[in-house]
Amino acid sequence: MSKLEQMLSFNKGFVENREFEPYLTDRYPDKKVVIVTCMDTRLTELLPKALNLKNGDAKIIKNAGGIVTQPFGNIMRSILVAVYELGAEEVIVIGHHECGMTGLNPETMIQHMKERGITGDTIDTLLHSGINLKRWLTGFDSVQESVLNSVSIIRNHPLLPPGTAVHGLIIDPGTGNLDLMADGYKHLTA
């Protein structure tokens, strides 16, 4: 049985046994926060537990590194939807120690792509089309700097409502300990 078939088989029993009932909620975050964080598997259950979040408390946006790289990309759009349409009032960016995006080498990743069947012609076509593939695939050197950069992009976004607190944290993926990098409340009163 394939992984997908296993998941679908489990899902059938999950629904038939009404195991979804403890998770029923609506689409509006009860704690009125939107969190941008990493897709790291260690954070799947740890992060909500470390923040005392239950299903329905927060909008959680995940990507590689938990970063906002451009002010008009998908992550920022999702933040704005959470704020304007779903009732979020604060934004929290949470990076983590030992992140796979730290020191990510684009040359190595491109080599891995080629090993998995992406042709050199495809890579060259993208490069000649003006896509800075190496920049797009570059990670960051410091999780602290990455969190602070993302916080800055969000805080300075022309469409973010004035007075929106934007915080920055770093979580330890082993213990769940949180370190405050940017206090959005202090920033608003400064």
UniProtKB/TrEMBL annotation:
> Per the record, what are the reactions this protein catalyses?
hydrogencarbonate + H(+) = CO2 + H2O
Q: Which UniProt keywords apply?
A: Metal-binding, Zinc
> What InterPro entries has UniProt attached to this entry?
Carbonic_anhydrase, Carbonic_anhydrase_sf
Q: Which cofactor does it need?
A: Zn(2+)
Q: What is its EC number?
A: 4.2.1.1
Q: Which CDD domains match?
A: beta_CA_cladeD
Q: Could you tell me the superkingdom of the organism this chain comes from?
A: Bacteria
- SUPFAM superfamilies (UniProt xref): beta-carbonic anhydrase, cab
Q: Could you say which protein family the record assigns here?
A: Belongs to the beta-class carbonic anhydrase family.
**PANTHER family tied to this protein:** CARBON DISULFIDE HYDROLASE, CARBONIC ANHYDRASE
Question: Per its record, how is this protein called by name?
Answer: carbonic anhydrase
> Per the UniProt entry, what species is this protein from, by scientific name?
Paenibacillus plantiphilus
